[in-house]
Specification:
Chain B: It comes from Rubricella aquisinus. The structure holds 2 protein chains of 2 kinds. The radius of gyration of chain A is 18 Å and the shape is globular. A 4-stranded parallel β-sheet of chain A has the order 2-1-3-4, sandwiched between helices. Chain A has a 4-stranded parallel β-sheet with strand order 6-5-7-8, sandwiched between helices. Chain A folds into 2 domains: 7-123, Rossmann fold (3-Layer(aba) Sandwich); 136-240, Rossmann fold (3-Layer(aba) Sandwich). Chain A is of the alpha/beta class. Chain A starts with 6 loop residues before the first strand and ends in a 14-residue tail after the last helix. The longest helix of chain A has 17 residues, at 187-203. Chain A has helices spanning 14-19, 21-33, 49-53, 57-71, 82-95, 101-111, 116-123, 143-149, 153-161, 182-185, 187-203, 214-226, 236-240; strands spanning 7-10, 37-39, 76-79, 113-115, 136-139, 165-166, 208-211, 232-235. Chain B is an alpha/beta fold. Chain B has 3 domains: 31-302, Rossmann fold (3-Layer(aba) Sandwich), CATH 3.40.50.10420; 306-397, Fumarate Reductase Iron-sulfur Protein, Chain B, domain 2; 404-471, no CATH class. Chain B has helices spanning 10-19, 21-30, 33-45, 47-66, 68-81, 92-105, 117-122, 124-130, 140-148, 164-174, 187-202, 230-236, 254-268, 323-327, 329-334, 345-356, 358-361, 363-366, 373-377, 384-397, 403-416, 419-437, 450-453, 466-471, and strands at 85-89, 110-113, 134-137, 207-210, 214-216, 221-226, 240-246, 250-251, 276-280, 294-300, 442-443, 458-459. In chain B, the strands form 3 sheets. A 6-stranded parallel β-sheet of chain B has the order 1-10-7-4-2-3. In chain B, strands 8-5-6-9 form a 4-stranded mixed β-sheet. In chain B, helix 3 crosses helix 4 (47-66), helix 4 packs across helix 13 and helix 10 crosses helix 11. Classes of the chains: A alpha/beta, B alpha/beta. Chains A and B meet through helix 1, helix 2, helix 3, helix 4 and helix 8 of A and helix 1, helix 15, helix 19, helix 20 and helix 21 of B.
């Protein structure tokens, strides 16, 4: 049985907070529709993944502790990101040694942390969303969500319930080349990878390119606009919440 | 280090690779071949059975590594009992010397070689040539790159970076004894010509060198798998057979080798089995119709035992199938030579710093998006991204991380650890950026972000931060 009125803490993630608040609001809308009580802990900044993946364990641990303290009091932590979600759900426990009390707290938080589409379907048992968006889209499976959290069928199922048609691209499971700091450390490789990705996405003839992680989306949207490719790039929750009236990622307000 | 690396110039190597039209053609042509074949082989076997085999293979190798000393001694004893010799090589230089000694004693002028990455790691070809002995590669891919004066760009497909027209040109240049106007269209024709040329060389060599996919402790056998049969001819026709293997290739029993064989070819090329799987059991016995008179095994350490007991021990489970390389989007973009040493792709990014030092090889574990595709296909379930991250930790501890990155990280961490300050700082920056970019929705150039904006636009922020809007009472 899905939980009734769970107290859900939203971790907006740093990129959504700064670049695309509308993804945060779309997430809130979906969670409310699913019957959740939303909380947005004030002490959230970043999940610490940049430090963890750069080999700075100490900073990563400090930030993890801050997140654990801010979020452990809720029934669930939900993020509009598979990447940040995987950092909390998979990496936090690995940051602390066995026997460290923080390890136990990290594991407890990890167990109740979910990426949004996975939370809606796997935890809340949502079968259909309220929005009706009869558009043709293609979907990029962001790496961490896909491989660390098993996010693959969930967004597609919810999209189908909103009347969205998904036309799969070639290599939808291949990395877009964002990779956090990778895209600025190795810009040439990253650029070639995102070129392949956008080429595959536009080859489907879809009107929209969706994904569940803002880093990948900004990378793909930035490449599409630079190369003059006409495809509307959006976070999947914007479509699921029926909030597609805002300009797409990288699109001007005129 | 016997084989010079260009790994410190990884960035320049990748720039060159991206501009190399032939390489890019070759990479595009092969990009999804191995990927599709592996997936089909997994489906054919049955996903549950295949995944179960991966678990079994991982457990088997973990057990072996936990008892490595026992199995190595058992193996040595068995090889001796069969009349063979085991030579322990602590370093690549030791291996070179041992191989040269054996070749000198055999009065070798020519050495035939089956494909062996351990020989590459030890720089055997150049070393033998410097000492007046001619190494002849008999694997087709290895033969092609030997003609070109190159090293393998892939551990199981050494010439995967070469296009067919380039092979044709190379053969015309090298095989001058053949009719200059002969027809070399079609892959079959090229294959036939290479086979014809190589056949004659099998009878010239006094020594044959092969690698080993596995060494079996229980029986003292070495195993090679090939698709061309060249390994068999290289090891059974010459008078002396040298097996070059690294010591983690050991498995306890003959039965265990079957577990590994069942995942090896499926993961590598999508075959159920390679075309030839050959077990070598020492020198020719009185009743054998053929085989070498002498059988030597050179067991290379070269830094591997130092990995035991560290966070890199799991890497020693690697069976060199190449699946991680085949599935790596970074490798698919730049090819194997850019990695700059012997082993490319994800396995190389973990192994190279272990073997040549993180100071020299540290670029490689950084050149990953941590997409995790490598780990998802590794038959031995090696957590490759995790180990690359461990290398980044070592670099961070040793202050090898570039200073701009370090300071950036520090400044960011200072703010990220203080939510009130973070709110103020991010809001100020984002509102300014939002104001500047609102009309167009993106930036074609931004100060300090040329890495990003060199090839793509930077989408502009919408305006205010989510946290500020939420606090101000905005709701969807």
């Amino acid at each position: 049985m899905p939980p009734t009125n769970p107290r859900v803490a939203l971790f907006a993630t740093c990129l959504v907070d700064m670049f695309r608040p509308s993804v945060g609001f779309a997430t809130v809308k979906l969670l409310e529709e699913a019957g959740c009580e939303i909380h947005v802990p004030e002490a959230q900044t970043c999940c610490g993944q940049p430090a963890w993946n750069s080999g700075d364990r100490e900073t990563a641990r400090d930030i993890a502790k801050q997140v654990i303290v801010a979020f452990e009091g809720y029934d669930y932590t939900v993020l509009p990101s598979g990447s940040c979600g995987a950092t909390i759900a998979k990496d936090y426990p690995a940051m602390f040694d066995e026997g460290d009390p923080w390890r136990i707290r990290a594991e407890a938080l990890a167990r109740k942390t979910f990426e949004i589409t996975s939370f809606l379907t796997d935890v809340m048992g949502v079968e259909t969303v309220a929005a009706e968006v009869p558009r043709l889209v293609t979907y990029h499976d962001s790496c961490s969500g896909l491989r660390s959290l098993g996010v693959k069928a969930q967004p597609r199922k919810l999209l189908a319930s909103a009347g969205v048609s998904v036309r799969e691209m070639e290599e939808s499971e291949v990395c877009c080349g964002f990779g956090g700091t990778f895209c600025v450390k190795y810009p040439d490789i990253s650029n070639s990878m995102v070129n392949d990705k956008v080429t595959n996405a536009t080859a489907t003839g879809a009107e929209m390119l969706l994904a569940g992680d803002l880093g990948c989306l900004m990378n793909m949207a930035g490449k599409a606009s630079r190369d003059g490719k006409q495809i509307e790039v959006r976070h999947v929750v914007e479509v699921l919440a029926g909030m597609t009236d805002t300009p797409a990622i990288g699109e001007g307000q005129g | 280090m016997t084989v010079q690396s260009t790994t410190p110039q990884f960035k320049q190597n990748t720039k060159d690779a991206l501009k190399n039209a032939n390489l890019q053609t070759a990479l595009r042509d092969t990009r999804n071949g191995f990927v599709g074949k592996r997936a089909a082989a997994r489906e054919k076997m049955g996903v549950d059975e295949f995944e179960g085999l991966r678990d079994a293979a991982r457990d088997l190798k973990n057990h072996t590594l936990a008892n490595l000393d026992v199995y190595l001694e058992m193996y040595e004893e068995q090889v001796r009992a069969s009349g063979g010799h085991v030579h322990w090589a602590k370093t690549a230089e030791d291996a070179q010397r041992i191989v040269l000694d054996i070749c000198r004693k055999a009065d070798a002028k020519t050495v035939n070689k089956g494909k062996t990455m351990i020989s590459e790691e030890c720089g055997i070809n150049d070393f033998l040539a410097e000492n007046g002995i001619k190494p002849v590669e008999t694997d087709l891919g290895e033969y092609i790159i030997q003609l070109r004066g190159e090293h393998p760009s892939h551990i199981i497909a050494p010439a995967v970076h070469v296009t067919v027209p380039e092979v044709r040109d190379e053969f015309r240049k090298a095989h001058t004894h053949l009719d200059a106007d002969r027809n070399l269209d079609g892959l079959d024709t090229l294959l036939k010509e290479a086979r014809g040329v190589l056949r004659e060389k099998y009878f010239e060599a006094e020594v044959g060198i092969t690698g080993a996919n596995m060494l079996i402790a229980e029986t003292g056998q070495s195993i090679i798998v090939t698709n061309e049969g060249n390994g068999d001819l290289s090891q059974s026709l010459p008078r002396v057979h040298i097996v070059m293997a690294s010591l983690e290739k050991i498995v306890p029993t003959l039965e265990d080798s079957a577990t590994i064989l069942r995942v090896l070819a499926r993961s590598a090329t999508g075959q159920d089995m390679s075309v030839y799987t050959t077990f070598s059991s020492g020198p020719r016995r009185a009743t054998d119709p053929d085989g070498p008179e002498e059988y030597h095994v050179v067991l290379l350490d070269n830094g591997r035992t130092d990995m035991i007991g560290t966070e890199f021990q799991d890497m020693l489970r690697c069976i060199r199938c190449g699946a991680c390389i085949n599935h790596c989007p970074v490798y698919q973009t730049v090819g194997g030579h850019a990695y700059g040493w012997v082993y490319p792709g994800p396995m190389g990014s973990v192994l190279t710093p272990s073997l040549i030092g993180v100071e020299e090889g540290g670029q490689l574990p950084n050149a990953s998006t941590f997409c995790g595709r490598c780990e998802s296909v590794c038959p031995m379930r090696i957590p490759l991204p995790k180990m690359m991250r461990h290398w980044r930790e070592r670099e961070f501890e040793k202050n090898l991380t570039p200073s701009a990155m370090r300071y950036g990280l520090k400044a960011w961490a200072f703010v990220a650890k203080r939510p009130w300050l973070y709110r103020v700082k991010t809001r100020a920056a984002i509102m300014a950026l939002g104001l500047l970019g609102r009309r167009k929705g993106r930036f074609a150039a931004l100060p300090l972000a040329s890495g990003w904006t060199g090839g793509r636009d930077m989408p502009a922020p919408e305006g205010d931060t989510f946290m500020a809007q939420w606090k101000a009472g905005k709701r969807p």
